[in-house]
Amino acid sequence: MVTLNNPQMLNEAVAKWRGQGEIIAFVPTMGNLHEGHLSLVEKARQVADRVIVSIYVNPLQFGVNEDFDAYPRTLDEDQHRLETQAVDALFLPTTTMIYPRPPEQTTTVDVPELSTILCGTFRPGHFLGVATVVCKLLHLVKPDILVLGAKDYQQVAVIQRMVEDLFFAVKIITGETVREVDGLAKSSRNQYLGIEERQIAPILYKTMRESVAQVNSSEATLSIIESEAKQALTDAGFNCEYYEFRDAITLSQVQPGDTELILVAAVWLGKTRLIDNVPVTLR
Ligand code: AMP
Predict the structure, then answer these.
(1) Tens digits of per-residue pLDDT, 37-75?
(2) Beta strands 272-281 and 260-269: pairing type?
(3) pTM of the model
(4) Which of 38, 96, 120, 150 has a Cα at 20 to 30 A from 179?
(5) Whose CA is nearest to atom 11 of ligand 1?
């Protein structure tokens, strides 16, 4: 694995591989790598000849009161883990490289509507930061395939829209959410959970699975299923931001006739924000 610290080195590596007719897959991350990230690397390996991983904690996607400073940075361990994963290149951009101008002069990418619903309501500017950094990374890396985790469902929708609207010649593939044995979706932020909170946290996914099972097996409407689940989560100690069935493709409110839905949720457990999603087909 080569570690590339500047766009020129990256360009040279990519140009060489492309000249050899090789397919390049790219896995962008913020580091603190866990099995979720590594499953995406594995997926990339299966569909491409070359795999490039980036690690960059993107300040633009964090709100002013969010955890940018506290976000776990574990570059040495990450590098060791990637060495064992047959990754061809690790790209480590710096903030001066990605954002050479002050924030008020920075060109940004806004994906309207999709960026302002669900997580976007509670994290204004978050998806503008995500779309901007992914746009820049795609221009720098120029991959054939972009591998994203379905855990960040709305993020995939936003990036997919940006890729379509800005004519990026890249194919997006998604990897399933990797979970702890008790069902909690793996996340770098899980380490913020206290011991008791860690025991409560799996209730989120358990509740979501129960809600999804109810959809086709009970008379209850979607909104009743949502409000009962929210109450159960509140009773268990969570603070719900949202817990909603949405159209799986557009993420808009469910309309009569929709069959492919996604249950999406964002909750707080103490100072830790957890997100998750579970698909469901209406029968
Ligand atoms: P992050 O480092 O949190 O920005 O995540 C980098 C990529 O890993 C994103 O595409 C995430 O959706 C994906 N990812 C994060 N957690 C998981 C997980 N538990 N399972 C699968 N993919 C994940």
Answers:
(1) 999 999 999 999 999 999 999 999 999 999 999 999 999
(2) antiparallel
(3) 0.98
(4) 120
(5) 149
